[in-house]
Design brief:
This protein is α/β, with parallel strands linked by helices and 452 residues long. It has 3 domains: 90 residues, NAD(P)-binding Rossmann-like Domain (Rossmann fold, 3-Layer(aba) Sandwich); 204 residues, Mur-like, catalytic domain (UDP-N-acetylmuramoyl-L-alanine:D-glutamate ligase); 130 residues, Protein-Tyrosine Phosphatase, Chain A. Helices cover 33% and strands 21% of the residues. The chain is built from 15 helices and 19 strands. β1, α1 and β2 form a beta-alpha-beta unit. The protein is globular.
Length: 452
């Protein structure tokens, strides 16, 4: 656990008692703060391992700050009642990253890397953590990737904390000062929570606003919004691209990484990185390489680390190969852009898609169907997806994941890929994308496929 003595003697409200909130409350209590913890979910409040206080009836004039879990609406579709109450009482709203910052001066000398983006941030967070360890420094990851930052144990001197940050977390973070910030890409996502694309971009851009002036940034220049941030912070940014070879930056073209950061230009082959297939993963690799250079690692050592990267569970995860057919679990592909990236990474695809859409699915998937031999549609969005696909690809209205896998296995031939990349959330039929991905793997195992 990471403690923050700067909160000693303070009274801090903690709202939202899932993993992040419970970890934050425990760290604050250990730091000597008085914590008023609450959740509107009565089961979570009742099971909290500490005393709770109903924040709806509490006097906010006695609070020094209100720590929000990232799932609590800050602005859209409307501010939560406790957000309004905090604003009316002029109480600061903070995140667990802010508490982490409060404890940094008591930690052994270290650096922090923060990663955000619409897609690829979890893979890049894991890849950067792996790269740092392979290059000889202690590293640990946390944040939106699933481990609360305050549950981490302090690392020895020279360690690097690698944090995935969502737009929800960035919205409520003000004190955290990442040494290196990374923006991978920006496409429409979570617009219900940010109002529109400009609101979403503003939240993502906070990853640079909260940095000190001498901190560094790694920014993709392959989409309009990210490119605008690269221009705004050009004096401290390493640009990366998978669309063009940059004169001064890191680029990947046709599986070759081009390092053009100084006069000693270097090229590296990425083909040995078997878990980093496709243009989107090459973007992840380019950003990771740039971070490695900022950490003063040798270029060849950085690229060598990619070959041993095991990949991320539920993100284009090779589950098994049966009779020459590969089963790929990309359950984390919960929006159309993520699914499009997976569809572009493979050939001869039997595509399992559907679930609960985050919003309108749009038409972008239509341009990524050239490698799809057959689609198997499940969940609430099956009809909408069928309408988008039209007559471009044969479709089965499978309904359930089990039926979709059975039909795909029946149709697939050696050399084909059965790809679960839903383009939707899992909440209509599963608890979350992890639950859906685990179900996919369990069903494949029933057919005799063992996890790779």
């Amino acid at each position: 656990m990471i403690e923050a003595r700067t909160y000693q003697g303070k009274t801090i409200g903690v709202f939202g008692l899932a993993r992040t909130g419970v970890a934050a409350a425990e760290a604050l209590i250990a730091s000597g703060a008085e914590v008023w913890a609450w959740d509107d979910n009565t089961e979570r409040t009742a099971s909290a391992p500490f005393d709770t206080v109903n924040l709806h009836t509490a006097n906010f004039n006695d609070l020094d700050a209100l720590l929000l879990a990232p799932g609590v609406p800050l602005t859209h579709p409307e501010p939560h009642a406790l957000v309004k109450k905090a604003q009316e009482a002029d109480v600061r709203i903070i995140s667990d990253f802010d508490v982490f910052e409060g404890g940094r001066k008591d930690l052994p000398a270290h650096q922090t890397v923060a990663i955000t983006g619409t897609n690829g941030k979890s893979t890049t967070t894991a890849l950067i953590t792996h790269m740092i360890a392979e290059c000889g420094k202690p590293s640990v990851m946390g944040g939106n990737i699933g481990t609360g930052v305050l549950t981490l144990d302090p690392m020895p001197e020279g360690g690097v904390y690698v944090f995935e940050m969502s737009s929800f977390q960035l919205d409520i973070t003000s004190d955290f000062r990442p040494d290196i910030s990374v923006l991978l890409n920006m496409t429409p996502d979570h617009l219900d929570r940010h109002g529109d694309m400009d609101g979403y971009a503003k939240a993502k851009g906070r990853i640079f606003e909260i940095q000190d002036k001498n901190a560094k940034a790694v920014i993709s220049v392959d989409d309009e919004y990210s490119r605008s941030f690269a221009k705004q912070y050009s004096d401290r940014t390493i640009p990366v691209s998978v669309k063009v070879i940059l004169d001064n930056g890191i680029s990947v073209q046709n599986g070759v990484l081009h390092d053009r950061l100084d006069d000693n230009h270097q090229n590296y082959n990425l083909l040995d990185a078997k878990t980093l297939v496709g243009e989107h993963n090459h973007q992840n690799a380019a950003a990771t390489y740039a971070v490695g250079r900022l950490l003063r690692f040798d270029g060849a050592a950085i690229v060598n680390s990619f070959a041993s990267f095991p990949g991320l569970t539920h993100r284009q995860e090779l589950v098994a190969e049966l009779d020459g057919v590969r089963f790929i679990n990309d359950s984390k592909g919960t929006n159309p852009d993520a699914a499009a990236r997976a569809l572009d990474a493979f050939t001869h695809i039997h595509w399992i898609a559907g679930g609960r859409a985050k919003g309108a699915l749009g038409n972008s998937l239509k341009d990524h169907l050239s490698a799809v031999k057959h689609a198997y549609l499940i969940g609430e969005s099956a009809d909408e997806l069928a309408g988008l696909i039209g007559d471009k690809v044969p479709c089965d209205m499978s309904g359930t994941l089990k039926a979709a896998i059975a039909a795909a296995k029946e149709n697939a031939a050696s050399g084909d890929v059965i790809l679960l990349s839903p383009a939707c959330t899992a909440f209509d039929q599963f608890q979350n994308f992890e639950d859906r991905g685990d179900a996919f793997k369990a069903i494949v195992k029933e057919y005799g496929g063992q996890n790779q």
